[in-house]
Amino acid sequence: MSSVDFTWLIGGPQGSGVESGANIFSRVCAEMGYQVFGKREFYSNIKGEHSYFAVRISDEKIHSNINDVTLMASFDAETIFRHYDEVVSGGGIIYDADLDDVTTDKVHTLDAPFKERLHKKLESKNKPFSIAGVLEIAKENGVLLYPVSFKSILETLAEETENPRLKGLIRMFNVIGVSLSLGLVNMPPDSLQKTVGLVFSKKEEIAKINQQAANYSYNYATAKFENFNHTLTGIQKEPGTLLVQGFQGTALGKMACGCRMQPYYPITPASDESVFLESNEILEIIDARPGSTAVIQTEDEICAMGMTIGSALTGTRSATCTSGPGFALMAEMLGWAGINEVPVVITNYQRSGPSTGLPTRHGQDDLLFSVYAGHGDFPKIVYASGDVEESFYDTGNVFNYADVFQVPVIHLMDKFIASSVVTCKRFDTSKISINRGKLLDKVESGYQRFAFTDDGVSPRSRLGMDNGIFWDTGDESDETGHITEDPVLRAKMMDKRMSRLDLILKEIPDTEKVVSFGVEDYTIISWGSAKGPILDAIKMLKKEGISIGFIQLKLLHPFPSEYVSSLLKDAKTIIDVEANHSAQLSKLFKQNVERDVDYFILKYTGRAMTSTEVYDSLKRIVENKADKREVLMHGA
C-alpha cells in the first residue's frame, strides 16, 4: 500500500450541499498535491433522498474508489445508517451529536428492503434500532467516534460574528463537516480558506460567512478531537495536473477539435456536458480569433438528432449528447445519417436500463444496442473511452473518424465517468488534430455526392456550395442522390457504404483500437469505465506476486477481430469485466474472435465498481475458488 491511501465520505439529503462539500474537500486535497478520485451517488429524485460522495486520495496515481472508508462526516441520520459499516477499524466518524436518539422509523427515506437488512444486523448484535445502536457496532469494530453539535457550532458562530442569521443556515452543515474533517487530519488551514473563498467567489458575503464557519470548525476539531492516527499534511504537488469532473473531458475535447454545434434534450447524466459547453460557448481559437459553439436545447431527442444532421450537412462539426432512453429515440434518424453518409457524433453517457431504469445510476448497458442501433445495414463506429483523460483525446479522434469515413460515430461514455472528479495531467490541445476527410472547399461541375470511389468514400459538398448541389433522402439513391430502386444500383450502393467497415479497420491505428496493459495466463477483457477499478485491482494483486493481464477494447464496432486474437493468443484464461447483466462484450468477443470467456465479473446494481470488489473476485479466480459468474454488490 502507498503511504497515503485515504477515503473520505460525506452524505446527506439531495439539495443539502453534499456535492459542494465534496468539491471543497477534493480541491483542498488536490491543491496540497494529492491524487484524487471522487465519485457521487444519489437517488433518482430531485431533492430529499440520500446523496453521498466518496473521495479517495493518495500520494500515488489512483483510478477508482475502494470499499473501505477512513473517515466519514455526516450531518444526517440516513448517511450513518447506510454507511457506518464501511468505516474501517482505526477510521473515524464525525457526526452530529443531536442525532443519537434518531430511530430507523424516523428516517422515512430508508427503503423497506434496506431497513429489514439493517434491523436483522442490529438484532443479531442486540442493539437498538437507532443511530446510537449502529454507532455502538462501529465503536466495537475499532472505529473512533467524534460527536459534535452542528447546530451549536452555528449558534456560537452567530454570537461571535454578531450575525444572528447564521443560526438557521443549516445548509452550511456541509462546510462544517468538511472543515471538521480537515482539522482532524491536520490539513493546513490556509488551503481550506482559499478553496472556500473560490467555491463561493461569486457571492462575496456568502464566501465570507462560509470562511468563518470553516475557520471555527477547523479550530474546533484541532482543539477537541484527538487520537486519530491519519494525517494529511500535503505533499509536493506534481506540475501540470488539474482537477476535473468527468463530463468536462468530452466537452473540452469538443471545443478543441472544432465541434461548433450541439443540439440536445436534457437527460441524466448527459445534460451536464451540454450545460458546460453552453456556459463556455465563447472561446478563443487560432490566432486569438473568437469562436463559439451553438448549444441548443430542443423539444425532444428526435429533433436533437435531426438538427445535428442538418448542421453537419453544412460542413459544421456537429454532435449531440444523450443517455440510453434518449439514444433509443434517435435510432431512426441514425439510419438516415447512415444511408446519407453524414458524419455526426453521438456522445452516449450510459446509465442503468431498461426503460427509465435507474436514471441517476451507473451502467454499461448500451453496448449491443449501439452496435445494432437502426434498422437495416449501414456503417457506423462504436467507440468507448475508459476515463476522463482518455475522453478528451478520444473526442478529437471520433470527430476525425466521422469526417474521414463519413459515418455516424457513437462515443460511449457512462455515469461512472460523468460523476467522477479526478486529478489528471493537464489536457494537451496540441495532441488534438483535425482531419475533415474529403470535405470540399470548392466544386467545379458535374458533382455527384455519392460517387463511386476506390475507397468507398465520396467527396463531400456543403449545403449552398456553388456547383455542389446534391439530394438527400431516406430512400436508396443513385450517385447524385435521386431515389432509385434499381437492383444493380442498390447492390452497388450497399457494397459501397458497407465497404467502409473494412476501411475503418485498416485505417485506424491499432493503438487507437485496443490498449494492452500486458497479457498473462489470466487476462481481462473489458471496455469503458471498468478500466479504472481493473488497473487498481491488478496493481494490488501484483504486490502479492499475482500477475493479471488486461486488454482494454476501445473500438467496439467494427470489431478488431484479428488484432484482438493476436494479442490474446497466449492467454489461457479470459475474464470479462463489465457493468451489465448479460456480459455484452463477451457476446461481441465470441462472435468476432470465436473464443469463449472463462469467467465473468459483472456489476448491475447501478453502483460503480470499486477496485476492492474486482481484486477480491480476481483473487478467487486465480485461487480456483470463484464462480464462473462473479456478481459485485458493494454500494449503498
TrEMBL record:
Its EC number is 1.2.7.3. Residues 521-610 form the Pyruvate:ferredoxin oxidoreductase core domain. It comes from Nitrosopumilus piranensis. The keyword Lipoprotein does not apply. One of its GO terms (molecular function) is 2-oxoglutarate synthase activity. Keywords: Oxidoreductase, Pyruvate. This is 2:oxoacid-ferredoxin oxidoreductase, fused alpha and gamma subunit. GO terms for biological process: organic acid metabolic process; response to oxidative stress; sulfur compound biosynthetic process. Residues 15-218 form the Pyruvate/ketoisovalerate oxidoreductase catalytic domain. It comes from the Archaea. Residues 253-492 form the Pyruvate flavodoxin/ferredoxin oxidoreductase pyrimidine binding domain.
